Amino acid sequence: MRPTLRSVEVPDFGLPDHQPDLPAGLYAERLEAVRRRMRDDSYQRLVIYGDREHSANLAYLTGFDPRFEEALLVVGPDGEPTLLAGNECVGLAEAAPLPMKVVRFQDFSLPGQPRGDGLDLDQALRDAGVETGLSVGVVGWKPFADRRRIDVPAFIADALRSLAGEDRVRNATHLFMDAVDGLRVVNEAAQLAAFEYAACHTSSGVRRLVENLRPGLGEHEAVRHLQWNGSPLSCHLMLSSGPRAALGLVSPTDRVMERGDPVTVAFGIWGALNCRAGFLVADADELPAGISDYVDRLVAPYFAAVAAWYRTLRVGVTGGELFAAVAEHVGDPFFGVFLNPGHQIHLDEWVNSPVFTDSPIELRSGMALQCDIIPATGGPYFTTNIEDGLALADDDLRAELADRSPAAWARIQARRTFMREHLGLDLHASVLPFSSFPACLPPYLLSPDRVMTVAS
Predict the structure, then answer these.
(1) What is the pLDDT of residues 345-354, one digit of tens each?
(2) Most Cβ neighbours (<10 Å): which of 27, 287, 447, 451?
């Protein structure tokens, strides 16, 4: 059925009454999993880098993410890993749930801060077990096909190569971020419960913002409706209107929104991101000149692609099948869909993507995914966008999640029912929607109750 625009009452799916904690023992299990991967790849030492922007691999393994500074974790085949942290992160690292030997390494500290302990990087790495002739894997934040390419600061890469040997140091980021079996692309039930909590807050915030948009509202005023609760952000908060909206990734300003403006918003915290885009109008007759067919020309085929994405998605489907389902509806150059239509999400907003042309990668139980199909027309039609997160789970994982987090499970089932009955999106049993504004796309932002649907 061709998508149509209808008035739909979206339920209040509720917010969690507490934030799920990851059990401390989970980090020890992850460390053992890392060591198994090290043995499989013949790494004798693994060196994991983190900084404020790129902390997800380090935080996944240890529960610690550096603030202001860099940090470096050295993992050997046994014993406690060694963490090098700067002046301001040493105390924070001591509170990490994974037992570690924490060493103050002052060159990771901010410029001008004390450097009196005299410990140089070569000595710190030797003390942590990096020796001549050992095979060293380096985890940055991009897995390259050429594993000689290492994406950590040069002074760290130089020191490792000097100590272990030029040909003994390789990029090992794939152990965490490979789209097929990276440690962070297949999640435990406890981690999925934490992601559902995050998605409740980001999706409810975006829904609240959309429902409160109006001409005369400043961008900074609008983002207050997100009600960010202080959880760590996974990306810069984005909201823009008018001519700047075409730039997509920019942050809000004092600009006052006007009737007829294009508007886009994205809000992401660790484990979740939601985005919506449309025009600040009540109906087609208020759209800018020349695009009165905005819904028919752009939004309807886009939502058909989204419906096909959800209809195809399940444990065991390949990324290539998912890509083809989307391309059937928005493959024309007019839509400008260039990026992967879907990707894996974790503490960072984008881990990797198994969704590309002819991808043979099978989607697995435990994967957390983002429905992320982004048209970029480059013209007056602007864009439309409906980014929501979800997870894939087989029978066993679904049973574990329901037992561990019954309130989250109830929200997931309520979302599935809503999507089936009101939007016409009948999800496979393995698809668990996390968004509390699930697949709701109001193209006319002053009529937020009118959303796209393929329901008969």
Answers:
(1) 999 999 999 9
(2) 451
